[in-house]
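Record type: monomer structure entry
Structure origin: computed from sequence
Chain ID: A
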Amino acid sequence: MPRGERKLSDSKIYHIIVRGNEKKEIFHNNNDRERFLDILKAKQSEKTYSYLAYCLMSNHVHLILDIGEENISRIMQRINISYAQFFNKKYSRVGHLFQDRFRSEGIEKDDYLLAAIRYVHNNPVKAGLVQHPEEYYWSSYGEFASKVPVRRLVNKKKILGLFDQDLLAAVEIFKDFSNSGKEDQIIDIMEDNMKAREKERAEFVMKKFLEHHGMENSCIKTFDKTLRDQLIVELKNK
């Protein structure tokens, strides 16, 4: 059964969320996080896409990605496969490390982009890991705010240029913006859009499942355990 197609962004910029399978950890320690960042850098080195922000949490990753002329699914496939191979070998495990389908939301306007970056950098604050985004080492915040070169993974000139053409002034404005503590209605809308599309895909899968079995929506409550389990597996896989 085909999946629903991703909504493509005219700007080629996306907010991407990659989660561990069954919400399990994808990073057990800082060495794992370093390896993931090394993979990000290695996979991007010969391509036209660029990272605009990132944040590594224990069981998921946020990326703001400008895909350029690349294909978003191929980019994420290369990254995820490389890291999964490393992780499975290191911990002597088998099976899927990531949820099969990553979430993506197109970002068409600069205000959405800046709000998304602030949201990504404040994820550890929201999770109660730190009080301020600059205290969290495993995000791109330091690449924007530090005067000392950090990892050089993100295209910070593109983002800082949206604040001020003077780099030093832009950094200070960026810091104030990142620590403003505002709840972004824009991000709430983006999150709602992601959830709405997931719901649409689930409804599509359910409809096809019922059609395959010659049934209607009203029959769901009468499913026996075997049929119900089949539907759950179908929803999870698709």
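Annotation 1: DSSP finds nine helices and four strands in the chain.
Annotation 2: The mean pLDDT is 83.
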